[in-house]
Amino acid sequence: MLKQKFFLPLLAILLICSSFVLAQEEPKDQLYWVREEVVKVGMWQQYEETSKEWVELMTGAGLDIPYMRASQRDDGHYYYLFPLSGYGDIDNFPNVFGSAIEKIGKDKWKEFMIRNESSMEYHKDFIAKWHSTYSYIPNEPRVKMEDAEFLHWVFFTYKLEKRDEILDILAEWKALYEENNIPDGWSTWTIELGEQNNMMAISEFAKDGGSWYAAMEENTELLKEEEQKLWAKLAPHVLTMEQKYGSPRPDLGFVNE
């Protein structure tokens, strides 16, 4: 999508996450509680071990959440996404976890948290929204999500008063991909609460880094002129950009059956 522009001066674009959203029916916007954790470089193994233990503890205690998606950036940032049915779920979120912790036992949980949190630099929570209208889901994807081992994120901040204009441009970009039946999809995310409210992100997945770059080159060759026009419209509204790479981590997530 915006990938070929990263190599031009003054660049860097779009947040989180995480896994790309696929659906059999027309998807709807989805709100997520996002936990971001940053691992201490020298304690990566302990972080991995305790993160897997967290999944075991919470699923064993019957955590009342339908699923959690996990992904990892190469620079030690981990994202955990918990779906929310609406903003009303936010107030009840601590109670859901509190109920599971009671079943685990407060002493056991305290001991676990010491081991888990001592392996992190910090963690933070925020609310993000996946947007159906501004995300592109191909009819025939180049790679299925379950086969993806590579994730690319672009985070960008923008002029707050230009939010609507940016979303309109992303809708145009989506229409361009639909018109050309591009097999590579992407997700658009916005920050709703708890982070910079002038931040957005694009996430996309591929089989591996090599195939992602090859697809980027292929799509750039096909759409170069049209994407240059869209970029010319978008760039004046963008303040900062940053791209990150990583992978899905299904072993650190769960689905309640």
Please describe the structure with a list of short key phrases separated by commas or semicolons.
single chain, 257 residues, alpha+beta, Alpha-Beta Plaits, 8-stranded antiparallel beta barrel, 5 helices, 9 strands, 31% strand, globular
Topology readout:
Layout: E1 30-39, H1 44-60, E2 67-73, E3 77-84, H2 88-104, H3 106-117, E4 120-136, E5 150-158, H4 163-179, E6 186-193, E7 199-206, H5 209-234, E8 238-248, E9 254-255
Antiparallel strand pairs: 1-3, 1-4, 2-3, 2-8, 2-9, 4-6, 5-7, 5-8, 6-7
What does this structure look like?
This protein is α+β, with helices and mostly antiparallel strands and 257 residues long. The protein has 5 helices and 9 strands. An 8-stranded antiparallel beta barrel has the order 1-3-2-8-5-7-6-4. α4 packs across α5. The longest helix is centred in the C-terminal third of the chain and has 26 residues. 31% of the residues are buried.
